[in-house]
C-alpha cells in the first residue's frame, strides 16, 4: 500500500490546463468526489459544485473548503451582482483556487428565481459587468460556462452576441454546453437530455473567435469522442459519464497530457480512499459521504455489482461499516475469484 505522504509528494500541483475537465455537478462534485477523482487523474481540471454568492457571503458554512491535493481545481459561482461576485472571487483566490467560473448555464427554477444561471444569457451585459469587476480584483482566470441559447433566443446570432459582449469585458475562456435550455416547460434533468446537441455551433464559435479558449460540454461519453472534439475546440468537459464510470479518467493523463506514469489501479485507489475516510474529523462526516462517489469505480469489472451493493447496503443506516471500502473490496474480489474459478472449470 502506498504511503499517503509519499503519494502527496508525487502529486505536485500541476499547471492548469483545460484540455480535459470534469463538469461542476450539483450534489455530486463535492470535495470528497474531487479528491477521489484526483487519485485517478493528476491533470484533469476539476470543478466544484456551483456555490451561490449569497451562500458564501451570508452563509455559516465553509462553502469554499477543499483538499490541497485537488489542484488544479476551479470554483463555480452562481450570482449576478458584480459587487457580490467580486467579493466571492477574491475569497476564492485567497482560498487558493486556480480559476473562478461564472454559472450561466443552470436552468433550474431555484437558480432562475435568483436571477443567475442560464437566464443570464438574456442579459449579457450583467455577465460582462461581473467579469470586469471580478477581473479587476483577482489574478486567477475568470471564466464563463454557458449554453448555446435559451428558449426562443436560440439562433447563432443570439449566442454570438452573448459571447461578444462578455468577451469584450475581458473574458477569454468559455465552456459551452452544446444544448439550448428551455427555462419554461422542462426540468433541469430534461434540459440535460431533451434539447438536441449542436456541436457545430460551438465549432463555429471557435472558428470565428480563434483568440478565445473554447471548451465543449454535453453528451460526451468516451475519450475517443473527446479526441474528436479537440480537433475543433480547445477543451472538452465531461460530466455524468465520469461520475458513473470514473476510471475513464485513468487514460487521460497519458493520452492528452503526455504523462507516462502508470495510473493507480482500482484497488490502490480504494485503499487510499479508506485512509482518506479515516482521516476525516468533521463531526458530521460519515463514510458514505465519500463512498457514494465511488459506486462506479468497478464499472464493467468482475464483481462490480457486488461492490456497488456492498457500499449501498453497508455504508448507510445508523451503523455503517467503519472499514466500508476495504470490506467492500474484499467481498468484490472474492466474488470475482469464484467467477474465474467457475469459468476455468467450465473450460476444463
UniProtKB/TrEMBL annotation:
Keywords: Flavoprotein, FMN, NADP, Oxidoreductase, RNA-binding, tRNA processing, tRNA-binding. The active site is at 106 (proton donor). Signal peptide: none annotated. Residues 22-324 form the DUS-like FMN-binding domain. One of its GO terms (molecular function) is tRNA-dihydrouridine20a synthase activity. Catalyzes the synthesis of 5,6-dihydrouridine (D), a modified base found in the D-loop of most tRNAs, via the reduction of the C5-C6 double bond in target uridines. Specifically modifies U20 and U20a in tRNAs. This is tRNA-dihydrouridine(20/20a) synthase. It comes from Alteromonas alba.
